[in-house]
Amino acid sequence: MDRRTVTTRRVALSLALLTPPLGNVAAADWSGSAALTSDYVWRGTSQSDEGPALQAGVKISGPRGLYAQAWGSDVRLAPQTAASHELDLVLGWAGPLSEAFALDAALTHYRYPGAAVDLDWTELGATLTWRTRAWLQVAHASDALASGASGTYAQMGVRIPDDDRLWFEIAVGRYRLHAAGGDNDYTHVQAGVVWTLAPPLALRLTMHDTSASAQRAFGGWAGSRLEAALHASF
Known about the structure:
By secondary structure, the chain is mostly beta strands. About 10% of the residues lie in helices and about 55% in strands.
């Protein structure tokens, strides 16, 4: 059985376990995504050892803004971890706060099935958006990156222009990591362009860079890198 089949089955099973009863199933809104990326970059650091990764996810949205989501990706972390897959399980709420503002609050559990060590951890986060043109994200975990110490991530970003065909995104993030062993806090900046080729396909090119402190903490997985990804949504 290949990796794609294993990941797909794990995603489907995990979503079934997480999804609460929503009453009328026909009223639920299902959506999904798939992507092939040249480098799985998360908060400025490579999760695939600067190599390509295949990713897929599925989401069910119920009444009153509640949703459950499962998303999986290939990863290549430190060799001693033997981690080759990441599975994110999400329970959240999303909805408008006013005509201009919307909020998405979620609890995310990061899992690494088959890893030789315990890498699983959980994070609570929220993203506030303004007219789909700007966002502010804050996330906190008491066991960030399975380190045993807390961590808080904050990011601000803008989308220019508000267009569905071609747009640019610029964002700056700061990750405060309180693990022992020195100053692990770092800054992450990214600038990218998204081009809708033909619905449901989109091409995303993103340039990432991190502060020197990230390279001290994560070595060659941090620093400057270009990420290219082909996305499909359904």
